[in-house]
């Protein structure tokens, strides 16, 4: 074999196997059947051999670090206990993103004291055998794929291997520092030019009965006792636990007119501003009140002096409204609470079908007219007009139901339907951001047909998907791995008795 890569004898001692594997790959590409094959065949061949070369490189790196490790007369840990017995050449196996590697390191023990490894602390090795590089890859895979698909991806690329149960357990540990990560101060530039938006919604996740909340679990047990084989129209199985999804973001003012909102033939509005610094997260373990409180805490983290105009965007869910009003009072913040305009128009469309069941043209004209009045701030007039129209058209009790429902909804929500003020100040009036978050974070991954979740796995996947949706996954993982070092290697001392350089 011709030597293609030249390295010093010292480096060759550690990286010689990797260099030899690389040179062998080049020879096989030139001299084997691959040389006369297709590019696709060559790509597959290189991919298979490349991972082994990388594995040998990682092992060479660890062997080089091991060879440079300083031999201490004693290791004194942060608690003042000294370990004077040195145990050399302790073999350690680590599953990396490239595959399993082995290396030696020195351990230190004393009477009644367990072994400590300074090199493990230098390398920030996790307490189990799965490296942080492999953990990082798993976090990205699980944020997008099922556990089975993630394992298949790892296997296809020929890298680190991990059994499915260990994969699920490891995933749960990856989110340990989620709350701490988002509790750090956050400085927003030019807060006076921004609107600060808090928005929330809920989405059910199918879980096993033991992970249901108490009331839902009892309902599920009652259904099971009935042994129903088929549900009646409108019935749903009591197997879902509600996940609350919250988003906080900033956005520039966007002044529009009712006519521009409805797409009428008027001057087009300026380009819509995009949300900035958007953070979104979901939780299936905590109740809605706790998540709404987290939303207000995130807003205060961004704007502690309340220099921005705060807006809370929600649908008409009574418990959500109650929690938002409760938390706003608790924190003493001045917020504009707005119900989603699209959600309100859905009530108008149902009323329109009752009033104009046979004329789509009249129905559309009527809905647009009522929508325009709502956008102008005339919610009470719209509610009153709905009831009068139902009476004028002599609808019977059954026909009146959707009309009266829309009127009651609008009348009871007047304080949150001040769209005229919102449009004047350029405030958002629709919940598209949180609806998109519910779809991506929860529905697209958690609502797979037939899937049922254990709570610990569901929470881990939601958190990872939240981090990725917020653009924070890589930053969080770096923070998490540093936190892991502080937890696992708290015994390391610094200064004159430094054990780890």
Quickly describe the structure.
The protein is of the alpha+beta class and 501 residues long.
SS-derived structural category = alpha+beta
Give the quaternary arrangement of the chains.
Answer: single chain
How far do the termini sit from each other?
40 Å
How helical, in percent, are the residues? Answer: 40-55%
Could you give the count of β-strands? 10
Largest sheet: 5 strands, mixed
What is the radius of gyration computed over CA atoms, rounded to a whole number of angstroms?
Answer: 31 Å
Tally of helical segments: 19
Helix and strand run: HHEEEEEHHHHHEHEHEHEHEHHHHHHHH
> For the residues shown, what is the average pLDDT?
89
The portion of residues forming beta strands comes to: 5-15%
Strand order of the largest sheet: 8-7-6-9-10
Low-confidence stretches: none
Explain what the structure shows:
- The protein has 501 residues and is an alpha+beta fold.
- Among the domains are: 1-68; 69-174, no CATH class; 341-429, no CATH class.
- The chain is built from 19 helices and ten strands.
- It has helices at residues 9-31, 39-68, 118-123, 132-144, 147-157, 164-173, 178-181, 214-226, 258-261, 288-302, 318-331, 341-355, 360-375, 379-392, 397-412, 419-424, 432-446, 455-469, 473-488; strands spanning 75-76, 82-83, 85-96, 99-110, 113-116, 195-206, 240-251, 276-283, 309-314, 335-339.
- The protein has a five-stranded mixed beta sheet with strand order 8-7-6-9-10, sandwiched between helices. It has a three-stranded antiparallel beta sheet with strand order 3-4-5. A two-stranded antiparallel sheet has the order 1-2.
- Helix 12 (341-355) packs antiparallel against helix 13 (360-375) and helix 12 (341-355) runs antiparallel to helix 15 (397-412).
- The longest helix is centred in the N-terminal third of the chain and has 30 residues, at 39-68.
